[in-house]
């Protein structure tokens, strides 16, 4: 392929790519969503299926996305089309990228609302209004926030502007540097919180909840959620990693890089769960409380621990940063596409897309108040966008990317990018051709046709 670099520029080094991709992967999915869906789906067996999905489906698909992006060095739609053409197939494969962009738009619109909750909690921690709060009071405070669309709109707007501004600025050195400091800091604070969780007396219960594999609790729906979440948490199935891969330097090893990203992402999720569940159990809260889990349990924990206010502020700032670096990656593929296809300026593309996702976000934040009667298949807009993207659109995007990489792209081109030892390449190829698509297809099948 002719392009040596993308017209958007490239990452300064392999480390910057790892940093940016980890910034995309580690986000609300790890700290907010993973603990609450683990809670809703009964714990251990769910965690095991999730880990299997990451290893057997997520990591191989991430390698495919990176190599397709890096080979073509274009936005996901054009990258898929070019790589297809090079292997003698039709450029129509670009359609997968189109579906991905739609997923990105829908995910951003609820993601930004949750990002707004996090910003609100920075303020709550700063003012100290939750010091010494009981879990019931923390629960009502969260309920009151959801019922207040004006406040939510303010925070959602701020979060959207922050994200659009970074995307408009391009592959920005500022955010790269910020991520370099913030990611390790997030980890250190998670460890401190984990240390606190160990002292609460609920640690053994929390640990057992996450790691005792009781398969009788596993349902097809839980397997679907685990599979869907493995795509969501690794930012797969929608072109984000493909777009980031298109800015990657040629000399970096894709296999090792992807393992590092997947490993870090999984570690953050597991540590977040181990930090949150003991707090839940020691305060007699319900692990299946849903999306409010983190926003209720953490204020209680910080309200009780020494220097809780300080740690609370820091912690929510870091979650906000993690969410922010993910949010920008939701916009990047579409912005790159708009620039390359419509030949418009990055600023124009980012603002145009930004206004669209911001407006859709209003429907999401209204789901808890003025739009609560608007439902799709029994779910409000917020839940519906979350459900169809994570559980259906990302896995479907993933199946097609796997089938594409396994069956359409010629092995010699794939191996030219991946440079894997031949046995590992065979394994990867089997995963693309069979394991990943079949796993996704089985789970989707049983979701549509539940077993009696
Ligand atoms: N991976 C991000 C998270 O876990 C969410 C995300 C999904 C970002 C898809 C980009 C693309 O929070």
Summarize this structure as a short list of keywords or feature phrases.
single chain; 452 residues; mainly alpha; Sodium/glucose cotransporter; two-stranded antiparallel sheet; 77% helix; binds phenylalanine
Total number of domains:
1
Number of strands: 2
Oligomerization state: single chain
Fraction of residues in β-strands = under 5%
Order of helices and strands: HHHHHHHHHHHHHHHEEHHH
Backbone shape: globular
CATH architecture: Up-down Bundle
- State the strand order across the main sheet: 1-2
The largest sheet is: 2 strands, antiparallel
Radius of gyration: 21 Å
| CATH class annotation | Mainly Alpha
Bound molecules: phenylalanine
* Secondary structural class: mainly alpha
Query: End-to-end span in angstroms?
Result: 51 Å
Pfam families: SNF
Transmembrane segments: 12-32, 44-68, 95-119, 152-171, 183-204, 224-245, 257-281, 301-326, 347-368, 388-409, 430-448
GO molecular function: symporter activity
InterPro entries: Na/ntran_symport (IPR000175), SNS_sf (IPR037272), YocR/YhdH-like (IPR047218)
